[in-house]
Write a structure and sequence with these properties.
With about 375 residues, the chain is an alpha+beta fold. The protein has ten helices and 13 strands. Strands 1, 2, 3, 4, 5, 6, 7, 12 and 13 form a nine-stranded mixed β-sheet that branches. A four-stranded antiparallel β-sheet has the order 9-10-8-11. A hairpin with a 6-residue loop joins strand 3 and strand 4. The two termini are about 20 Å apart. The relative contact order is 0.18.
Length: about 375
C-alpha cells in the first residue's frame, strides 16, 4: 500500500478585482488567487478507475480511465473528466487513483470553484504521471474542459488566475495575447469577500446569452471583438447597435479602460481611485450588462459606505455569487465585523464574509507522504 497520500494539491479560488465579462471579449482582467480553495489528496489504486469524493454533498464519482470520456455525465465529475480527457489527448498514461477533495470555498459563490477543481486535478495528474504542463497549456486545457464537459463558454481568466497567481499580487491578463503581468498589491490593503448566498449557475443560460450578445455587437460594428473598440471611438459606432447589444458593448469598452486605470492606480498606491473604479464597474455590470442581483446591489451599497472601504463591486460572472471590497489593512477586522452587521440588517440575513490576501496558484504541498 502506498503512503496515505501519494500527493496533496492545494488549488485556490479566485476573486476578480475588476474586468468582468471582458475575458471572452479578448480584453483585460485583474484577478487574484485567494487563501481559500480546494485540497485534493490523491492515492494510487489498482486498476484503471479514478474515484473522486468530496466533503460537499454529492455522489462519489468514478471515471473509467480506459474509456474516458464517457458521454452524458451530468454530475460534478464532468469537470474532472474533462481534465482527464485533455491529458489523455496529450498521450498521457494515467494510473488508477483515488482523490479526496475538501474545500473551504463556497460553491456557487462566484469564486471559481470549478476552475479550482479543474486546475487542481491537472496539477495532481502532473504529479502522479511524472509529467509537466506549461502553465498556459495547463490553463487552456482546463478551460477546454469547462467548455466541452460543463457547457460553460467561459473566458480564460479563472483558469489563468488559479494556475499562475503569485502571493501578494494580482494578475493583469491580456486575454488576447495571453500576456500575464503581476501587479503588486501593497500591504496597506486587504480584500474582503462577501458571499451573497445567492448561488449562481452559469450553465443556466444567462452567461452564454451575454456572450452571444457581445459577439453580435462586434459583428455589427465590423470588428473581430469588442476589444477592438476604443472608448474614444465608441460614440461614433454606438449608433450602429440595437439594444441590448449597445449596452453590453458599452460595458465591455468602458470596463477595459477601468482595468488599465485600476492597474495604474494599484502600482501607484492610489487606492481611492481604485475604489472609485470598482464602484463604476459595479454600476456598469448592474445597468448595462444586467448580471447583478438585488442582494449584490444591496451589499455593494452597504459595504461601500463603510469607513475603511475604498470600493466594493460584484465579482465573477454574476446572477448571484459574491461581492469584493478593497479595504484598509489596518481596519480590516473592524470592517469585516461592520460588513456582517450592516449586511445582516440590510438583507435580513448575515451573508458569509471573509478577509483574504493575494495567494499563490495551484501547487503540490505534499508528495510521497511528506511536505513537497
Amino acid at each position: 500500500m502506498p503512503a496515505p497520500h501519494d500527493v496533496v494539491v492545494v488549488a485556490p479560488g479566485r476573486v476578480n478585482l475588476i474586468g468582468e465579462h471582458t475575458d471572452y471579449n479578448a480584453g483585460f482582467v485583474l484577478p487574484l488567487a485567494i487563501e481559500r480553495g480546494l485540497r485534493i489528496a490523491v492515492s494510487r489504486r489498482p486498476g484503471t478507475t479514478a474515484v473522486f469524493s468530496s466533503d460537499r454533498s454529492g455522489p462519489v464519482v468514478e471515471i473509467d480511465l480506459a474509456s474516458c470520456p464517457s458521454p452524458g455525465r451530468g454530475d460534478w465529475g464532468r469537470y474532472a473528466e474533462g481534465v482527464i480527457a485533455g491529458c489523455r489527448r496529450l498521450g498521457w498514461t494515467i494510473p488508477g487513483f483515488e482523490a479526496r477533495i475538501t474545500a473551504d470555498l463556497p460553491a456557487g459563490g462566484g469564486l471559481s470553484s470549478s476552475a479550482a477543481l479543474e486546475v487542481g486535478v491537472a496539477t495532481a495528474l502532473e504529479a502522479v504521471c511524472g509529467r509537466t504542463l506549461d502553465p498556459i497549456e495547463k490553463a487552456l486545457l482546463c478551460q477546454r474542459a469547462e467548455h466541452e464537459f460543463a457547457g460553460v463558454p467561459c473566458g480564460i481568466m479563472d483558469q489563468f488566475a488559479v494556475t499562475m497567481a503569485r502571493p501578494g499580487h494580482a494578475l493583469l491578463i491580456d486575454c488576447r495575447s495571453l500576456d500575464v503581468r503581476h501587479v503588486p498589491l501593497g500591504d496597506e490593503v486587504a480584500v474582503l469577500v462577501i458571499d451573497s448566498g445567492v448561488s449562481h449557475a452559469l450553465a443556466d443560460g444567462g452567461y452564454a446569452a451575454r456572450r452571444r450578445e457581445c459577439e453580435a455587437a462586434a459583428r455589427l460594428i465590423g470588428r473581430p471583438s469588442l476589444r477592438d473598440v476604443s472608448s474614444a471611438e465608441w460614440p461614433d459606432v454606438a449608433h450602429r447597435l440595437p439594444e441590448p447589444e449597445r449596452r453590453r458593448a458599452r460595458h465591455v469598452v468602458t470596463e477595459n479602460d477601468r482595468v488599465a486605470s485600476f492597474s495604474a492606480a494599484a502600482r501607484a498606491g492610489d487606492w481611492q481611485t481604485a475604489g472609485r473604479l470598482m464602484g463604476e464597474s459595479h454600476a456598469s455590470l448592474r445597468d448595462d450588462f444586467e448580471v447583478s442581483c438585488r442582494e449584490l446591489d444591496l451589499i455593494c451599497v452597504a459595504v461601500g459606505g463603510l469607513e475603511g472601504v475604498y470600493g466594493c463591486r460584484m465579482t465573477g460572472g454574476g446572477f448571484g455569487g459574491s461581492a469584493v471590497a478593497l479595504v484598509e489593512s489596518s481596519r480590516a477586522d473592524e470592517v469585516l465585523a461592520a460588513a456582517r452587521t450592516v449586511c445582516g440588517r440590510t438583507l435580513d440575513y448575515e451573508p458569509g464574509a471573509f478577509l483574504t490576501r493575494a495567494a499563490a496558484g495551484a501547487r503540490v504541498v505534499e508528495q510521497g507522504g511528506g511536505a513537497a
